């Protein structure tokens, strides 16, 4: 359509700009890539040397740069865009939101998220089958989500087999009234089994603090799945003298490695075509994505101004609580504070904009435990 004859793929993430060869991306090379998981270009963490990257873009005579990845990648793209602008180069920089975590703000969802939620169903289903087959069975599934629990929340909502979903945004506690152990005991007594989903970033404040970071500067997390498995086993064997059968499933990399599903493949086509149209129309410094179902170009500064996280005082989390019947682990006071924070000024999010304040009673979810300090 635009008469482009040369498209280069940069290998291995940002460091590939200055450390490795390029791959010519011809129609033949990319023809079947949507049927494979992973990336034919390779990926890496760290290695964002802005000056070297922009030198390499200049040296190679590249005039449009399309950068595919998660929230960190979009930040890196923005820094490249600023440097290109500073040098006065005529080079477009555009971002494509691709991450299973769905932690990129503004847009409806990132490419890969839908697939991850779908694939997580298989693990949750396995956990349910295993838990149901034994006496006092607990199926525990760990899902990805370092800082945001979208995969865990949506996988839980989709499955309906989950009795408790733990995410980074919703602090929880183990012992005492309204705690996780009490809830597990109740579920086992009532149903004989239960399924727990935990996002990898959940409850990290309860584990010993890790100071380590990966090459991109992301905090290296402790394995919360192993930790909580051990905690539950110890609690029931030592404190309750009760036999439980806990099966822990960690499908995280298996989920990330699958090819995109149909919905994600359609979304990917839409993102790819739109981002090229945007660049060809002369836009730069933007990420392409759906907002309220409409294709948009969002300036990097808007994409990168905050982290996208589950808002636990919004309706989606309330829907989850009422679907699992788990304790909310938060007090009325915390809910009200949190709502104030999220409803203030222009920060009103899409969910809360559906009703004006005057249409709302002072609603606090019924299942909020008011008794815990
Ligand atoms: N603030 C930043 N400035 C420049 N580069 C950054 C910044 N944050 C991250 N990057 C770079 O972006 C790349 C990807 O970042 P990161 O490893 O955090 O993954 P991501 O894009 O968030 O995707 P995911 O976490 O979903 O795998 C890395 O090369 C990292 O160095
Ligand atoms: O172990 P790795 O390859 O650094 O990736 C783990 C991280 O990648 C992500 O899946 C995003 O791709 C995060 O949810 C997770 O914390």
TrEMBL record:
One of its GO terms (molecular function) is 6-phosphofructokinase activity. Its cofactor is Mg(2+). Residues 5-277 form the Phosphofructokinase domain. Catalyzes the phosphorylation of D-fructose 6-phosphate to fructose 1,6-bisphosphate by ATP, the first committing step of glycolysis. It is found in: Cytoplasm. Keywords: Allosteric enzyme, ATP-binding, Cytoplasm, Glycolysis, Kinase, Magnesium, Metal-binding, Nucleotide-binding, Transferase. It catalyses: beta-D-fructose 6-phosphate + ATP = beta-D-fructose 1,6-bisphosphate + ADP + H(+). Its main location: cytoplasm. Residues 340-373 are annotated as: Disordered. One of its GO terms (cellular component) is cytosol. Residues 340-351 have a biased composition (Basic and acidic residues). This is Phosphofructokinase domain-containing protein. One of its GO terms (biological process) is fructose 6-phosphate metabolic process.
């Amino acid at each position: 359509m635009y008469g482009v004859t040369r498209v280069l793929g940069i290998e291995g993430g940002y460091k590939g700009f200055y450390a490795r060869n390029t791959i010519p991306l011809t129609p033949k090379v990319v023809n079947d890539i949507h049927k494979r998981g992973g990336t034919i270009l390779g990926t890496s963490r760290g290695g964002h040397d802005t000056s070297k990257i922009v030198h390499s873009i200049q040296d190679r005579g590249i005039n449009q740069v399309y950068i595919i990845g998660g929230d960190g990648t979009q930040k890196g793209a923005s820094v490249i865009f600023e440097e290109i602008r500073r040098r006065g180069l005529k080079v477009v920089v555009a971002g494509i939101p691709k991450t299973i975590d769905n932690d990129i703000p503004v847009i409806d969802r990132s490419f890969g998220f839908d697939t991850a939620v779908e694939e997580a169903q298989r693990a949750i289903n396995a956990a349910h089958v295993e838990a149901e087959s034994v006496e006092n069975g607990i199926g525990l599934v760990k899902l990805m989500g370092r800082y945001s629990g979208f995969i865990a929340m949506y996988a839980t909502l989709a499955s309906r087999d989950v009795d408790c979903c733990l995410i980074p945004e919703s602090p929880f506690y183990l012992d005492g009234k309204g705690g996780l152990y009490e809830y597990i005991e109740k579920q086992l007594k009532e149903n004989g089994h239960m399924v727990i989903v935990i996002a990898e970033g959940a409850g990290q404040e309860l584990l010993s603090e890790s100071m380590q970071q990966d090459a991109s500067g992301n905090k290296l997390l402790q394995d919360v799945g192993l930790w909580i498995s051990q905690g539950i086993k110890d609690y029931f064997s030592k404190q309750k003298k009760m036999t439980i059968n806990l099966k822990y499933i960690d499908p995280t990399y298996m989920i990330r490695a699958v090819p995109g599903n149909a919905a994600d493949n359609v979304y990917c086509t839409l993102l790819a075509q739109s981002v090229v149209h945007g660049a060809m129309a002369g836009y730069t410094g933007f990420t392409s994505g759906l907002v309220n179902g409409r294709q948009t170009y969002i300036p990097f500064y808007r994409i990168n101004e905050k982290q996208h996280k589950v808002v636990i005082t919004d309706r989606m989390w309330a829907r989850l609580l009422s679907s699992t019947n788990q304790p909310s682990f938060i007090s009325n006071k915390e809910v009200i504070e949190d709502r104030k924070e999220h409803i203030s000024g222009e920060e009103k999010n899409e969910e809360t904009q559906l009703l004006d304040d005057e249409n709302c009673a002072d609603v606090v979810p019924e299942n909020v435990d008011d008794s815990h300090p």
